[in-house]
Amino acid sequence: MKSISNAGDLDQRVGRILSELRSRGQRVTPQRAAIIRLFLGRRDHPSADDIHRDLQAEYPMVALSTVYSTLSLLVEMGEAVEVPPEVSRTRFDPDVADHCHLICLSCGAVIDVPPHEVESDGATENFIRARDFHAVRQVREVYGYCAECAGKA
């Protein structure tokens, strides 16, 4: 899934996820719905702490553990991607389309890059097909230093 371009798409995706949670027997509280809506509406790679902090004005009693469990459910459902914790803290990505993360080891910036900009020769696709593996999603991580941090070194 690509980034959500408008409120209607966001409402549809949130509604679909909430229906799926109900069908799995999960509780759908106003707090959980707010976590999902806030997370899916973002275009960065927020941590659970970031989401928790942003919810405090409207839901001051929401627990950080509720945010973590909701984000973990989204990962389990294929509606989020967990960015490895080798950066300062675990963060989550609402973009579940195939893409590459460029992760700065200095400042922790995470930059999304479409897969066609990383690899144009199809070598990875050929490797996957040759092993008769049926890929559902690809997210690659490339670690290094962003232009700003590399310039400071």
Question: Summary?
Answer:
The protein is of the alpha+beta class.
Describe this structure in words.
The chain is an alpha+beta fold and 153 residues long. Helices cover 44% and strands 14% of the residues. A three-stranded mixed sheet has the order 4-3-5. A hairpin with a 7-residue loop joins strand 1 and strand 2. The chain starts with 6 loop residues before the first helix and ends with a helix. 20% of the residues are buried. The model has no long low-confidence stretch (mean pLDDT 84).
Which key phrases capture this entry?
153 residues, alpha+beta, Arc Repressor Mutant, subunit A, Dna Ligase, domain 1, 2 domains, three-stranded mixed beta sheet, 7 helices, 44% helix
Principal-axis shape equals globular
Count helical runs: 7
| Major pleated sheet | 3 strands, mixed
What is the assigned CATH homologous superfamily of the largest domain?
A: Winged helix-like DNA-binding domain superfamily/Winged helix DNA-binding domain
Query: Mean of residue pLDDT?
Result: 84
Structural class: alpha+beta
What is the CATH architecture assignment of the largest domain? Orthogonal Bundle
Percent in helix: 40-55%
CATH class wording of the largest domain: Mainly Alpha
**Intertermini distance:** 37 Å
Counting DSSP E segments of at least 2 residues, the number of strands comes to 5
Strand content: 5-15%
> What count of domains describes the coordinates?
2
Specify Rg, calculated over alpha carbons: 17 Å
Largest sheet: spatial strand order: 4-3-5
What is the chain-wise order of helices and strands?
A: HHHHEEEEHHEH
Q: Uncertain spans, ≥5 residues at pLDDT below 50?
A: none
Q: What fold name stands as the CATH topology of the largest domain?
A: Arc Repressor Mutant, subunit A
